[in-house]
Amino acid sequence: MSSPGSRPVPPAAASQLNLRGAVDLSALRRPAAPPSNGGVAASGGNRGNGQPLRVDATEANFQDLVQLSSQIPVLFLLWSNRSVEASTLLRSLESVVESYAGKVVLAAADVDAFPQLAQAFQVQAIPTAIAVLKGQPVPLFEGPASDQEIRGLVDELLKVAEANGVTGAIGAGAPDAEAPPLPPLHQAAFDAIEAGDYAAAAVAYRQALAEMPADAEAKAGLAQVELMGRIESLTAQDAEALRHLAAQEPDNIQVQLGVADLDISGGHIEDALNRIIAFIGRNFGPERETARVRLLELFDVVGMSDERVAKARQGLARVLF
To answer: Is the pTM higher than 0.70?
Structure first.
């Protein structure tokens, strides 16, 4: 029911966190409520300061938890009572999170009670752990993990959080200093993303690049929102049909790129990048260039300093030269 092994948060995320992980949270978007430590009720794990370090994630409080992630990292565990492995991991996470004295919050999402949460995160296995920072998801691991592995991931998560100005703690109030405001076009893009209007966000990022071609954040943001725009209307049935067609037509460029988008959005980074590299190795002419350009865009989505991108760049060089 699960995939063994944990995957650490890429160190590159510390400087490039934006839509890293490319998980589509738009399915649960709703009008934001005023933030109040996540607007969630305790489900256990109350500490001396009266604030919960573990909450039960529901469709009702999901947006509040995402808002809370602008102040404190929120670690979502997608779990099920039907899985002994998941129940054991939940207890381990509760213990580990408690030891961080309010610097991270655990949100336990029961996928049986709230299947839409699993759909929003595009979970492939139970249990799965995903962190959210500043409203953006960072996949952590699938399957079991030891306390030592969990602590290593949380330590890395807190480094990423600090690098992105997320330094609050439960019971410690708001961070001492607010993050500097975004440039106007970046803010316009962010607002459009919050509204689920990826086309408008793309327009803002393109304008930012027209004014400053070296704007790396705008370039990455554009690649990310274009990806989200391509996949937002796909249903589970569409995705299944696309994967079936890709197996039958390995040299159909649109189908192969479509499945690569699905893999990126589901956190299967290496599968996505290797799929396009393999296509480039088999094909020549305009379609090869189209695939190469898309691959470079996906590099921006994942993050240029990500080790999986570094490996894919080497693979691309081998098939090109």
So the answer is: no
